[in-house]
C-alpha cells in the first residue's frame, strides 16, 4: 500500500510538471519584418524567442509564403506584422495554413502594427488604376520613431497578456526602452534640423513617414505609379523634369534595385542616397536606434 | 503559470514525506493544513496582481497622444484599418474575379485529341478549341464565418456557359493545435499542382499526367485534415476522404466513403536564397461502371466500362530560388511530379451491345518537370518536359482470345511526350500575358504543334500566393 501510494504520487507529480513545462518556456514571437523583430527583442528581452520572417534586403510586399514560415507560424504565440495590406501577398496564406488559432486576425496573439498609428495617405479613391495602393493608407510606418514607440507599447501590453507571469519584467523593460527611445527621438530631431525642406525623390512611396517626421519635401517618385517599375521612357521624362533643379537628392531603400536610381542620378547630376528602410538594411542600421542614426547620417552626408 | 508552482509544490509535498505518509493521521492533517495555506497564499497573490493590472488599465489614458510622458506610457487603442462604414455591407466577404482568354493555333483537330494508351475521364483533357476563346472565369468569395470557421467558394464559369463549383468549403484553423480541417468540395491535396488554381499556373494547360490520371484537376467532396508538427522545419501530414465520385473514381451510389488519401510534406529553407518542399501522396478509390468511348476492331463506336480499384501514389518537389530571397528582380522555380496509378478490376466491352466483361489490370505512370525563370522584373520564361508510360494493359478478354487487342485501340501501349516553352509578361501583379509553344506527342504516332496566346487578369480583392 505504502509503495503504491508513493509511485502514484511520483507519477501524478511528473504528469503535472510535464503539463507545466510550456509556462517556463519563452514566448515564441513571429515577426514578419525586421523592424518588428528588432522591437520584439527590445521589449521582450530574454523572455521571448523572436523569429524574423524576412530580411532587410527583401521587398516586404513580395515575400514568399514558404514552408519554413508556415512551420514557424504554427508554433508562434504572438505574430507581429505591419498589416494595412503590406503583407497581403503572403501573410494570409501563413495564417490559414499554419493551424494556429492564436495568431488569427482579431486574436491577442496577432498585432497589425499599422492599426495603432496614424496613417498617412489614406486614399480617397480606391482604384487599381492608381497602381498598387493600400486602402488603409501608406503601410511603411516604421520610419517615424513615434510610431515605433506606440507599437512598442502595444507589444508590451500583448506580451503581458500572453505571459502574465513576467509582467514585472516586461513593465521594467518597456519603461527603460521608452525612456531611451524618447531621448533618442529628441536627439534625432535636433540633429536633423538642417535637413528640413530638403527636396527628395524616393524610388517608391515607402519613405513618406520619414519625410513627414523630418520635414523633408517629397517632390516625386521614380516609379510612375506604386509597384510599377519605371520604363526607359519614363526615366527620360524624369530626367527632363529634374534637370532644372527641382530636387536635391534621389533616394532608394536598401532592398530596391540600384540601377534605375544610379542612372537617374548620373543624368541629372543629383546625389543618390541609399537608405536602410529597416533594421539591417545598411551596416549602420544594426538595430532600431541605428536605423534612424544611419538614415539621418546618410541624408546629412549628401546635403550641400 | 501559478497552477504549476502550486502543482510542483503539491508534488514535492506528496513525494518527500512519502515514507511516513501511511503511518500518522495527525501528520496527514498537518499536510492538509499546509496545502490550504499555500493555496490561499497563491490566490491572494493572483488577486493582488489582477488588481494592479486593472488599476494600470484604468489610470492610463485611452488616447494615443498621452504616450508622450515616459513615466506612464499608455498603449494606444487600435483603430482597425477596415473602413468605418456602418452600413449593411460592412461584413461583405472578399470577392475577386479572374478573367482569362486565349487565342490558340492548333495543328491537329482538337476534337480528336486523345492521350493514347490511357482511359480518358473528366472533361478537361486536351488543348481546348482553336482561335479565340474565353477561358474559365473564376469568381472567388471568401470570409470568416464566425470565430470558429471561415468559408471559401470558387465558382468557375466555362466558355460554354456552364458553371461549376470548383471549390466550396468551410475551414477550421487550430481548434486542435497545428490542424487545418476543411469540409466540402475542394481541390484534392494530392501532389503539388492539383491544389493550385489554373490562373496561378505557369503554363496555359495542365501537365499531361494530371490530364491522364485526373482528367484535369481532381476534386473531392469530403473532409481533409492537415496537421503541422511543431517543428521549425515544415512537416505536414494529411488525410483526405470523401465521395470519390470524380475520375478516376466514379459515383457508386454507396454509403460511407469511396476514397481515402494520405499525404506528407517536408519543406524548409536552404540559406537565404533557396526554399523547397517535397511531398508524397497515396490515394485509393474505387470505380463502378466507369464508362469511356472507344471503337472496336472494325471501327464501330463502343462504350466500355471499368469496375475495380484505382490506387495512385505520387511524389512532388518544388524548389524556389531568388537572390537573397528577394523575388522582385530575378527568381527561379523548379517543379517536378511523378505519379503512378494501378487499376485492378474488370473491363466490360460494349456495354450497350455484346457486353463482354473480364479481368483488367493496368500499371501506368507519368511525370513532368518544369522550370520558370524570371530574368527581369515582370518577364518570365519557362520550359516544361513531360512523359507518360501507359504500360501494357492486362486485358483478360484479349488474353483469352475472346477479343483482340485491336478491339481496345485506346489502350494500346503508348508513351506520350510533350515539350513546352513559354514566355510571359506581367504589367502588374494583377495582369499577365503569355505566349506558349508546345510540341504535343500524346496522340498515337502524331505530333501536334500548338501555339497559345493567353491573358489572365484579376480584379477585386488581392489574392494571396501559395508557395
Task: List its salient traits.
heterodimer; A: 304 residues; alpha/beta; Rossmann fold; four-stranded parallel sheet; 45% helix; elongated; B: 467 residues; mainly beta; Porin; 16-stranded antiparallel barrel; 13% helix; 46% strand; globular
Describe the 3D structure.
The complex is a heterodimer of chains A (304) and B (467). Chain A starts with a helix and ends with a helix. Helix content of chain A is 45%, strand content 11%. With 304 residues, chain A is α/β, with parallel strands linked by helices. About 2% of the residues of chain A have low confidence. Chain A folds into 2 domains: 163 residues, 3-Layer(aba) Sandwich (Rossmann fold), CATH 3.40.50.1980; 111 residues, Rossmann fold (3-Layer(aba) Sandwich). In chain A, the strands form 2 sheets. A 4-stranded parallel sheet of chain A has the order 2-1-3-4, with helices on one face. A 4-stranded parallel sheet of chain A has the order 6-5-7-8. About 3% of the residues of chain B have low confidence. A 16-stranded antiparallel β-barrel of chain B has the order 1-3-4-5-6-7-8-9-10-11-12-13-14-16-17-18. In chain B, strand 9 and strand 10 form a beta hairpin. Chain B folds into 2 domains: 39 residues; 365 residues, Porin (Beta Barrel), CATH 2.40.160.10. In chain B, helix 1 packs antiparallel against helix 2. Chain B is globular, with a radius of gyration of 30 Å. At the A-B interface, helix 1, helix 3, helix 4, helix 5 and helix 6 of A face helix 1, strand 7, strand 8, strand 9 and strand 10 of B.
Topology of helices and strands:
The complex is a heterodimer of chains A (304) and B (467).
Chain A: H1 2-24, E1 27-31, H2 34-44, E2 48-52, H3 67-74, E3 78-81, H4 91-97, E4 110-112, H5 145-162, H6 167-191, E5 199-202, H7 208-214, E6 217-218, H8 232-243, E7 249-253, H9 259-268, E8 272-275, H10 288-302
Parallel strand pairs in A: 1-2, 1-3, 3-4, 5-6, 5-7, 7-8
Chain B: H1 2-15, H2 25-59, E1 94-106, E2 131-134, E3 137-144, E4 150-157, E5 163-173, E6 179-187, H3 208-214, E7 219-228, E8 234-242, E9 259-270, E10 274-295, E11 301-321, E12 331-349, E13 356-376, E14 379-389, E15 394-395, H4 396-399, E16 417-428, E17 431-441, E18 448-460
Antiparallel strand pairs in B: 1-2, 1-3, 1-18, 3-4, 4-5, 5-6, 6-7, 7-8, 8-9, 9-10, 10-11, 11-12, 12-13, 13-14, 13-15, 14-16, 16-17, 17-18
Helix pairs in contact in B: 1-2
Amino acid at each position: 500500500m505504502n509503495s503504491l501510494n508513493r509511485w502514484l504520487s511520483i507519477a501524478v507529480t511528473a504528469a503535472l510538471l510535464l503539463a507545466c513545462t510550456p509556462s517556463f518556456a519563452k514566448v515564441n514571437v513571429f515577426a514578419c519584418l525586421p523592424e518588428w523583430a528588432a522591437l520584439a527583442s527590445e521589449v521582450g528581452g530574454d523572455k521571448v524567442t523572436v523569429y524574423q520572417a524576412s530580411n532587410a534586403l527583401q521587398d516586404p510586399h513580395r515575400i514568399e509564403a514558404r514552408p519554413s514560415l508556415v512551420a514557424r507560424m504554427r508554433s508562434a504565440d504572438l505574430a507581429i506584422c505591419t498589416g494595412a495590406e503590406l503583407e497581403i501577398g503572403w501573410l494570409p496564406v501563413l495564417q490559414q495554413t499554419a493551424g494556429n488559432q492564436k495568431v488569427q486576425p482579431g486574436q491577442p496573439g496577432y498585432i497589425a502594427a499599422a492599426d495603432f498609428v496614424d496613417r498617412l495617405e489614406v486614399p480617397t479613391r480606391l482604384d487599381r488604376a492608381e497602381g498598387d495602393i493600400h486602402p488603409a493608407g501608406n503601410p511603411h510606418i516604421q520610419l517615424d520613431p513615434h510610431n515605433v514607440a506606440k507599437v512598442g507599447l502595444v507589444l508590451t501590453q500583448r506580451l503581458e497578456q500572453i505571459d502574465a507571469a513576467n509582467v514585472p519584467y516586461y513593465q521594467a523593460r518597456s519603461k527603460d526602452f521608452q525612456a531611451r527611445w524618447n531621448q533618442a527621438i529628441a536627439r534625432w530631431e535636433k540633429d536633423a534640423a538642417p535637413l528640413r525642406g530638403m527636396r527628395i525623390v524616393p524610388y517608391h512611396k515607402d519613405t513618406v513617414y520619414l519625410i513627414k517626421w523630418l520635414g523633408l519635401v517629397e517632390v516625386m517618385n521614380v516609379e510612375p505609379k506604386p509597384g510599377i517599375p519605371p520604363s526607359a521612357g519614363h526615366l527620360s521624362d524624369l530626367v527632363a523634369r529634374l534637370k532644372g533643379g527641382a530636387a536635391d537628392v534621389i533616394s532608394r531603400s536598401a532592398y530596391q534595385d540600384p540601377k534605375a536610381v544610379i542612372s537617374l542620378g548620373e543624368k541629372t547630376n543629383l546625389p543618390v542616397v541609399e537608405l536602410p528602410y529597416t533594421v539591417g538594411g545598411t551596416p549602420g542600421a544594426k538595430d532600431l536606434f541605428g536605423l534612424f542614426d544611419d538614415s539621418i547620417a546618410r541624408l546629412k552626408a549628401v546635403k550641400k | 503559470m501559478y497552477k504549476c508552482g502550486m502543482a510542483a509544490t503539491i508534488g514535492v509535498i506528496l513525494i518527500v514525506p512519502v515514507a511516513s505518509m501511511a503511518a500518522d493521521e495527525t501528520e496527514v492533517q498537518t499536510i492538509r493544513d499546509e496545502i490550504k495555506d499555500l493555496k490561499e497564499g497563491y490566490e491572494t497573490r493572483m488577486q493582488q496582481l489582477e488588481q494592479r493590472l486593472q488599476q494600470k488599465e484604468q489610470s492610463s489614458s485611452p488616447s494615443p497622444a498621452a504616450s508622450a510622458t515616459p513615466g506612464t506610457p499608455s498603449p494606444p487603442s487600435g483603430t482597425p484599418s477596415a473602413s468605418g462604414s456602418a452600413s449593411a455591407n460592412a461584413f461583405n466577404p472578399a470577392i475577386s474575379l479572374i478573367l482569362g482568354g486565349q487565342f490558340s493555333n492548333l495543328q491537329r483537330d482538337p476534337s480528336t485529341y486523345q492521350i493514347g494508351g490511357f482511359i480518358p475521364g473528366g472533361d478537361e483533357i486536351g488543348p481546348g478549341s482553336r482561335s479565340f476563346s474565353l477561358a474559365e472565369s473564376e469568381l472567388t468569395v471568401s470570409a470568416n464565418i464566425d470565430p470558429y470557421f471561415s468559408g471559401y467558394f470558387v465558382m468557375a464559369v466555362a466558355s460554354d456557359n456552364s458553371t461549376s463549383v470548383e471549390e466550396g468549403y468551410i475551414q477550421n484553423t487550430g481548434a486542435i493545435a497545428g490542424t487545418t480541417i476543411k469540409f466540402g468540395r475542394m481541390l484534392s491535396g494530392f501532389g503539388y499542382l492539383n491544389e493550385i488554381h489554373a490562373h496561378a499556373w505557369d503554363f496555359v494547360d495542365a501537365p499531361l499526367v494530371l490530364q491522364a490520371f485526373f482528367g484535369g484537376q481532381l476534386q473531392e467532396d469530403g473532409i481533409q485534415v492537415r496537421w503541422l508538427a511543431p517543428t521549425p522545419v515544415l512537416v505536414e501530414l494529411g488525410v483526405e476522404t470523401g465521395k470519390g465520385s470524380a475520375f478516376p473514381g466514379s459515383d457508386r451510389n454507396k454509403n460511407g466513403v469511396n476514397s481515402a488519401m494520405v499525404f506528407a510534406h517536408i519543406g524548409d529553407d536552404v540559406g537565404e536564397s533557396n526554399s523547397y518542399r517535397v511531398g508524397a501522396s497515396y490515394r485509393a478509390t474505387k470505380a463502378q461502371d466507369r464508362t469511356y468511348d472507344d471503337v472496336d476492331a472494325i471501327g464501330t463506336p463502343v462504350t466500355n466500362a471499368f469496375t475495380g480499384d484505382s490506387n495512385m501514389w505520387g511524389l512532388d518537389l518544388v524548389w524556389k530560388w531568388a537572390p537573397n530571397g528577394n523575388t522582385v528582380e530575378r527568381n527561379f522555380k523548379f517543379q517536378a511530379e511523378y505519379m503512378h496509378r494501378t487499376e485492378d478490376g474488370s473491363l466490360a466491352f460494349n456495354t450497350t451491345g455484346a457486353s463482354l466483361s473480364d479481368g483488367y489490370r493496368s500499371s501506368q505512370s507519368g511525370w513532368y518537370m518544369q522550370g520558370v525563370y524570371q530574368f527581369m522584373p515582370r518577364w518570365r520564361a519557362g520550359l516544361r518536359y513531360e512523359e507518360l508510360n501507359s504500360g501494357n494493359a492486362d486485358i483478360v478478354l484479349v488474353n483469352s482470345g475472346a477479343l483482340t487487342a485491336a478491339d481496345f485501340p485506346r489502350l494500346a501501349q503508348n508513351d506520350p511526350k510533350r515539350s513546352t516553352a513559354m514566355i510571359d509578361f506581367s504589367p502588374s501583379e494583377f495582369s499577365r500575358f503569355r505566349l506558349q509553344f508546345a510540341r504535343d506527342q500524346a496522340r498515337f504516332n502524331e505530333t501536334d504543334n500548338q501555339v497559345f496566346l493567353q491573358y489572365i487578369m484579376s480584379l477585386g480583392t488581392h489574392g494571396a500566393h501559395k508557395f
